[in-house]
Recover the amino acids of this structure.
């Protein structure tokens, strides 16, 4: 077993490191012959060292080359990434700015919408107002026309009233001379009186009597004092009663001109629904239901025919 390993060592000797070659115990124990053959085979001693060194150099160079290659490659990558990061940062800023702008735009849009709606409302209101104004203008014009019409009518009315007065107070008389009272009315200064002295079927209620007087530019007769009271009495005839302008209103005797009865001894106490009835020659008037048909006596102011 030992010999085999020794032989194996011998064969492997040139391949081993240079340091082991010098002290060789195995070589001296064996014969010189085999030594001599070994010497002739390793005759160029420099060659033994050149090969490993070259290999080492090659490896070293390769490592250095790779290192240089990778170093440059890595730094290039690094720079690229840095640039990219910078680019991204700037783009983020840009987006941020854009986002701010978007928000501002939204705000502006919103404000604009509100303003526009306000504007729409305003213009709607303006339209409404101008419509109203037009209507008012129309009404005003209508009123002006109505007033003008009324003035025209009034002028015509004045003329026709003047004509009516001439006819009633002057031309109706047989001598065609003008009188203070219309034809058929009796003068007791300062008033004219007309009594409906007629048979029963022509009699009417107090309201109807007042209407008849109104239709003849007069009222039912009124007496504020004893003279006027006597004047009414003087202008009535016959045995039957006459309505005068006195009736109960709100529990009080009231004249048709709105004044109160001044002398309460002229008629019994007021009863609701009663009116004053005059009998010729009697001092005290009767209090009678206004719905009873009676004769009646009207009164109007007499015209003044002298200055
Ligand atoms: C960032 O990159 C984009 C493409 O991704 C390029 O168009 C742009 O020019 C770059 N900007 C800078 C500042 O490098
Ligand atoms: C975006 O707006 C915010 C506040 O609204 C502000 O702090 C920021 O600086 C703005 N950014 C840019 C890029 O203008
Ligand atoms: C947008 O409007 C809101 C309130 O409506 C306000 O708080 C915000 O500051 C506004 N932003 C800008 C950029 O004007
Ligand atoms: C809209 O109009 C109202 C009154 O009509 C006013 O009070 C309000 O301030 C207005 N709003 C804007 C945004 O102009
Ligand atoms: C405009 O008018 C409408 C109704 O006519 C109302 O709903 C709306 O709030 C108004 N807008 C403004 C800004 O006043
Ligand atoms: C019409 O008569 C009234 C009095 O009844 C008078 O005031 C008015 O001035 C008269 N009108 C004209 C146009 O004469
Ligand atoms: C009032 O006038 C009418 C005609 O219009 C006449 O019939 C009536 O007798 C008059 N009344 C009096 C009290 O004169
Ligand atoms: C009321 O009338 C009576 C009779 O007509 C008369 O005697 C009396 O003096 C009058 N009283 C007043 C206050 O006028």
């Amino acid at each position: 077993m030992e010999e085999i390993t020794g032989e194996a060592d011998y064969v492997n000797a040139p391949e081993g490191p240079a340091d082991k070659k010098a002290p060789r115990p195995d070589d001296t124990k064996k014969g010189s012959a085999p030594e001599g053959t070994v010497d002739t085979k390793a005759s160029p001693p420099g060659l033994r060292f050149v090969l490993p060194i070259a290999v080492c150099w090659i490896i070293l160079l390769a490592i250095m080359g790779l290192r240089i290659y990778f170093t440059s490659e890595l730094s290039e990558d690094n720079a690229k990434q840095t640039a990219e990061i910078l680019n991204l940062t700037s783009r983020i800023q840009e987006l941020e700015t854009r986002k701010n702008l978007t928000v501002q735009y939204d705000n502006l849009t919103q404000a604009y919408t509100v303003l526009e709606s306000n504007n729409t409302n305003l213009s709607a209101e303006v339209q409404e107002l101008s419509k109203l104004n037009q209507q008012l203008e129309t009404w005003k014009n209508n009123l002006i026309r109505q007033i003008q019409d009324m003035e025209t009518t009034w002028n015509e009315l004045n003329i026709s009233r003047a004509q009516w007065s001439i006819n009633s107070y002057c031309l109706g008389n047989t001598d065609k001379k003008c009188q203070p009272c219309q034809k058929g009315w009796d003068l007791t200064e300062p008033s004219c009186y007309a009594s409906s002295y007629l048979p029963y079927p022509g009699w009417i209620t107090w309201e109807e009597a007042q209407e008849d007087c109104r239709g003849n530019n007069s009222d039912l007769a009124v007496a504020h004092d004893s003279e006027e009271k006597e004047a009414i009495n003087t202008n009535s005839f016959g045995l039957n009663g006459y309505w005068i302008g006195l009736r109960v209103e709100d529990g009080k005797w009231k004249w048709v001109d709105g004044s109160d009865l001044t002398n309460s001894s002229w008629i019994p106490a007021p009863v609701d629904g009663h009116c004053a009835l005059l009998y010729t020659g009697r001092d005290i008037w009767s209090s009678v239901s206004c719905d009873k048909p009676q004769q009646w006596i009207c009164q109007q102011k007499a015209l003044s025919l002298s200055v």
About this structure: The pocket of 2-acetamido-2-deoxy-beta-D-glucopyranose (ligand 5) is lined by residues 114, 117-118, 121 (CB under 6 Å). The chain has a mean pLDDT of 85. The chain has six helices and eight strands.
